[in-house]
Fold each of these.
Amino acid sequence: MSVFCYQCEQTDRTGSTAGCSTKGTCGKDETTAALQDLLIHLCKGIAQYAVRGRALGVADHEASAFVAYGLFSTLTNVNFNATRFVKLIHEAGAVRLRVRTAYEDAARAAGREPEQVSGPAALEPASDVEGLLAQAGQVGVLAGRDVVGEDVVGLRAFVLYALKGVSAYVHHARVLGYRSDEVDAGVEATLDHLAGSPSDAEDLLARVLEVGRINLQVMALLDGANTETFGSPAPTKVRTSAVAGKAILVSGHGFDELQEILRQTEGTGIQVYTHGEMLPAHAYPELGRHPHLAGNYGGAWQDQQQDFAAFPGPIVMTSNCLIEPLPAYRARTFTTGPVGWPGVRHLTDYDFKGVIRAAQATPGFAETAPAHDITIGFGRKALLSISENIIDAVHSGDIRHMFLIGGCDGAAPGRDYYTQLAMATPDESVILTLGCNKFRFNKLTHGTTPGGLPRLLDVGQCNDTYAAIRVAQTLATALDTDVNDLPLTIVLAWFEQKALAVLATLLHLGLRNVRTGPTVPAFVTEPVWQLLCERFGLRAGETAEKDLADALGAA
């Protein structure tokens, strides 16, 4: 069995070809990696029939949901459980058969002979794991490299990986009851295109931009899902120190799971804390109204082994950002949704009774620590409500420049760049931040502009890039200019596939001179990187001092 993965920043770069070929740096073993490749291949097969069915007026919404869930399960730091992937693979086979049957019936009803579809649509999953692994060895991300070369294979990977990020947002919206035919059709059309093993670099680059367009749509959908379900975020102070009492920690991105935990712990005396990218939950009225939503604990996802070991209660991992649970806290860790780790208890149907029992059986915090807090909640409506103040500050000179510094955090050396950059920005500037990259500087003091506006504006999770885009567009219109001519510098930290989806959206919108890093993705070859730089002005971050001087000089 031969496997290969280079989808995230922490990929092994020590060999002649950057990528993890045995156990992944993330902790993913060879078997799981291979099964993930096969699941993706089968999702392409579902999409092949789904696209043809849609052309005849037949759509299978549950199949679309399965494809999004399946792709989401293969993101970095989501699911490491090979047994779960075997089940998903066989389920994919059944879903594909259902979609195929619907397509063929529709074709015959229209007086057409059904197309005999080849490629992923024709592969029948083996009945045992050994057979599945043999099949997986033929369909990995490097398939066809000897024929089409590394540039094309890397661009195929860019399309696929960005689509994985889109699928994560699709899933988050869907669990709240929101979906879009246009988004589902776009995801399926992209997978159908990849199923044909495209080899034209310009065509693939256009597909990257198309995925960016789809991602813009789904970020808007998720913005609506969150605000209509939980209310519009408002500026909110969040406690970052402990309160005495029994405690549960909720990490990941799943607001729906957090809401149920808050409901099920009402009146129990248990305090609920958020971790990592769950921080923005406190600013949503329907979540923040619960008095036992006590605060935010710890840092970004890569700090979880230290954070979780010190936390005196159970941990619930929702949606993603899981790394190998240490023995010190593995027995009190639970997963939900697409998340999984072998031997860790997985919860379904929003049943958190086991978590509550674990909280009651663990010590909790013995005393209340001195109060510390940070301010969050500058979401779309909150930012738009102060847009006139920002415009006035730009005209008066109170704001000389705006920085958007956000994205995924990570453990690689060099990420103190973002701390250095944020802390070096002048007083006559504001910093918009989102995603877990904010933890590099969100507990530091940034003060206010000369006119009294907060200099650090926490917009929310990574998908809240949509809010930042809307605000930038509003400011550009009000200032009678183009977004690219605003005094705005975008610094996007990438680690995994959702940041790639966001990057694709920025490229789709024609935003230039975006700085990304701290490293260039391993699947982006040097010729492709140079093309992106020349065509879109994409830049790799250098030093905080130089990039700040460039940004202020350009302004």
Amino acid sequence: MATDTDTAAARSETSLSARTAPGGGWWRSAWTLPAVRWATAATVLFLAGLVVHLSGGPTWVYWSLFLACYGAGGWEPGWAGLQELRNKRLDVDLLMVAAAIGAASIGQVLDGGLLIVIFATSGALEAVATKRTEDSVRGLLDLAPDTATRIATVNAAGSMEETVQVALLDVGDVVLVRPGERIGADGTVLGGAGEVDQATITGEPMPVDKTAGDEVFAGTLNCTGALRIRVDHPAAESVVARIAGLVEEAARTKAKTQLFIEKMEQRYSIGMVAATVALFVIPLLLGQPVTPTLLRAMTFMIVASPCAVVLATMPPLLAAIANAGRHGVLVKSAVVMEQLGATTQVAIDKTGTLTRGTPHLAEIRLLDDISFTRDEVLAIAASAEHPSEHPLAAAVVSAARIAGLTLAPVEAFTATAGLGVTATIDGRQVQIGAPSTLLTSSTGRHQAARSAIAELQETGATAVVVLIDRAPVAILGIVDQLRPEAGAAVQRLTHLTGKPPLLLTGDNAATAGQVAAAVGITSVHAELLPDGKVAAVRELQAAGERVTVIGDGINDAPALAAAHAGIAMGGAGSDLTLQTADAVVVRDDLTTIPAVIALSRRARRVVTANLLIAATFITVLVIWDLAGHLPLPLGVAGHEGSTVIVGLNGLRLLRNAAWNRATNQNG
């Protein structure tokens, strides 16, 4: 029988797959990018040429296919490289195209084709990632409605309602927001009462009661009650607009991250081209024949070309990506896989990350001198809450169903915003709601109920009082359930980085402190808006930390974008968060995060070893070619041999043993 965890994991993977499957438009969107079309064409042509070559087909056929691959895959990076030349920069992509052409000129057309495909595919993936992030940022602004109901004063005797574009609202305007509508502007409640779901902005898992004087945010959902709101900020300055701006700003200002070998591309590119030209020009000036001189220069370009260096870097990182993917973590690029291993400080969100993000009935406190059992109170409360759409009501009903209790029919039901529900069940009046409004006396059971409420609230629970025939009978403690693996994940992250993670949350300090204490976190930053989370990340970075942020909500997206690496929980993560993050935990298992960081560190060690192997081969072959006479077949064999060695060494990270070792590694 499948457990609840298995079912939740399946829902998480299904949800994420639905958002990333080709049938959902992802591939059609990517296909509009020229880089994707050219890379696809180059890959198909290369594979076709490889099949013909390996099957012993006509030479002219596979040569034609490989050369067509050169044209398809080399056009985009070659043109970009020429544009860089105009800016007096020698781009490594242009060097790769030149090396591929050089390989073809001396008969090594297969090597050149492989080089073209690697670089064309890398460029296409980068273009797709950029486009998807931009699309998600634009989609974020759709959270706020296009129109709002403005209350216009006609005269001293009355007013009228008019529908206007949100962009046309001025500071000081008063708008009416009915139940089920999204709030159109940041503002202050002037009248009315209701419960507002503001999880998209603050991350709070439960709707918040709003009355006169309370602040509200554009894009949040008014669940119950009508609210009259004074506009405090224009649409362009709302919190939701600032979130989009923060994500875009982080994408623009975040320094372009490169793989280790790419940081040396300018020096290597210039040196290799200069040496190749010198090997060709200087002997000609000294009277050497053209053909052997060209052959020697091309041999140098082949043995000095960075094929082995590229394969020294990419296979370990790509193998680690594939291994992590099999175990539920989607890492979006080799650059991200390399960066994760450099993490020195982890910052983690609370709601939906350390917790499940859904209300859960944790405790029922029965008051003294009542004639009801715990199950009877739960059945009565669930029956009364069943018609309600409130998330807390759903938690009570769910608890009753798990306990196998039968719900009684409701004869009368009313729900009042900010107060709770009232129902008649088997002739009894049942009231369930906020203690502040239902407990009106200071003696007897009312006072006992207040004591129980204080104890529950100290544990971080939301207290809900149950009254039967106007007498308090029980207090329900509802919490955002902690993930069972959260403590173990925090402990392993602490061992890996040498310091406990930080908790960054928009929830209140008391609740945040309770959750932090339960999992072993000592540093808590609570009641943060999205820009506050970004500021906390920037402060850590200014102190020299390489920060990885873990979150799930739209309010986490700016911090994920600003961090050195961002990891999103995929089960209930918002689309913007999934696109902004550098990696996604598909199965919502927190223990995979320290595992993927440990795997990244091992991949970095393998890359370092591979670079030493590749550099040794290149150095020996280049010295041989310069100091003596390196036969072309031997040069090609040495070049290909180094490529095979580093490739196979990197592919060791594909094994399950590599993941198991990372899972058990604490540092």
Amino acid sequence: MLLDEHNSKLLFDKAHLPVPRGSAVFPGEEDDFAPDFPLPWFLKAQVLSGGRGKAGGILRLDNPADFPAKARKLFGREIKGEAVPFIRVEPGEEIAHEFYLSLTVSREQRCILLTAGRRGGVNIEKLGADNLLVQRITLPGGLEPHQIRAAFFHLGLDGDHFQNFANLLDALFRCTLDNGLLLAEINPLILTPDGRLLALDGKVEMDDNFVDLHPEAEIYHQREHAAPEENRARDAGLSFVRLPGWVGLMVNGAGLAMATMDLLNFSGLPASNFLDLGGAADQKRMEIALELLFGDDRVEIVFINLFGGILSCEKVALAMKGALRGQSPKKPVVVRMSGKDAMAGLKILRELDVDDLHLAEDMQAAIAILDTLRPAGATPVDYPSPPDIPLGPRPASVGWKSAAAFTIGADTPILVQGITGREGRLHTQLMQEYGANVVAGVTPFKGGGEMLGVPVYDSIAQAARAHNIGASIIFVPPRMAADAVAEAASNAIPWVVCITEGITQHEMLAAFQQAKGSPSRIVGPNTPGIIVPGQTKIGIMPTMPFMPGPVAVLSRSGTLTYEVADRLTRAGIGQSLCVGIGGDPFIGVNFVDMFEMIRNHDETKAVIVLGEIGGQAEENLAEYVVRTGFDKPVISFIAGQTAPAGKRLGHAGAILESGGGIAHKLETMGKAGFAVCPSLESVAETTARILK
């Protein structure tokens, strides 16, 4: 959740950081505004995009009589396509010097970065190599006194300012921890002629997972920055992002939603939105989702694309039946269902016998139907064709040796953390039905009983005394899940699979730091788990799409895993193992770790990598494959190629950086000898060709 300057300063002020006095003024309030602070005043447009100063979004005022006109001028301005919903008015401050100061959660370095700049303002990274000092802060350790001193001396402040600077930086760090901040930036931090340090401008990004767990943080969310449908979706718990097209999109699962968005955009049927129903599609959520799409004047057609994994297509169809209430949809709707209970779901919708409801069993058939419904004069959106990535040479063997081994099989003894909860109980039963060897469960203060014939203990330490544990799977609520990971790692459980999503990034950084030195392999969080088809399942994956065979599937997305496994199985290609590495920014086992094991896995003859925008996981894998001469063929697919820069799509880890990151990702994989598939449709075909 990105905060505007005004709300960032409200948060800073609450954390006892020095900020200028200021007031928010909304349209209609400008005629009556009469602050008690001295002139000059600065009127500052409140938008989430940067560069407002260059765009005329900050105005100086020396005469109060001019305020209404200047305020209205800002209210009528657009900054990088963003309307100005309100302004912040502050008194002017005399400036002796401008500095830069920030705390940022770094995905690449897996820590918090403290950055101090001798000069602040715009383009600070271009002010010379000596301007910035960057220091790593690890959690749970925290900010060290020597780091405060290093930042202070780097800025070149006089010694009599040290205590004020130390107090300010300590308050900024506490504010970051206490509010789950991913970014806390002061730019500029000013020194006034009378010796005060002041946060003249501020920018804050708050972890969405923290906001979900702390509803009181919603006071910093300014609804005026979002479109009405985005606010409605947020209230309903739906993941929704507005896009520039005219095909309304509704999908279950972020990975499949991104892949579907790409397919539409590449097919000249531009998506008007990204909408992920998630794993819950009851009638209420379905009604809200349809209302959002039907009520959007830009939407001409609606495409509902569902793969039944955990989610039953039949239940979704019943929810949709209830939402339509026997009436034809307000706009043409194309529904594609595949996977669990798909035939039953399509039968329910077919029997509705209403106009403008079109059914398809696969995505290509759905695209063909959508194309026939294309409205005359529909506004085109300029998306490029899917890139044709040439297949580079297979890496040369360099004699790389690895002692890593994939050790999960039919006999692996499994511990379930959170076994007595609803999700833990349900999936323990499903794992048992698949033949998984569940030997113990842990729920604090529930020890001594049994669940589904499995003994329950109060702690892993107790369970480990009574059982040999080969893997743990975690079904623990987000507030406690990071500690559950740390507990399993501290007991040296060989594999730790964390299903839980919604864990804050700070807590996972701390858990991974605590797990350093442990032999545990941590999978996730936010993972569907692991399945070895025909042998065992440690996760929530549906078993229907999978069958034993020679291809390993590694993925950052659960729904993409099920979708691709189903396509492979229908093509007669089985899977040796399938691992969801997790969709969060901070995960344990990554693609490289899995490849180290797979190179020694005789049952695996080829590997499919299902990636997403954001991060460097796929680039790091490509570098590893070339450097170590990995000799098994690799097939890859990346979802989210047409995502707008800077927008987070469902998974916390899926955000497209500005500057063409996706092109570099695809090119790097191609040069490493990966067969880069342009669409989901080509994955099974490409795999079959390579296996032959």
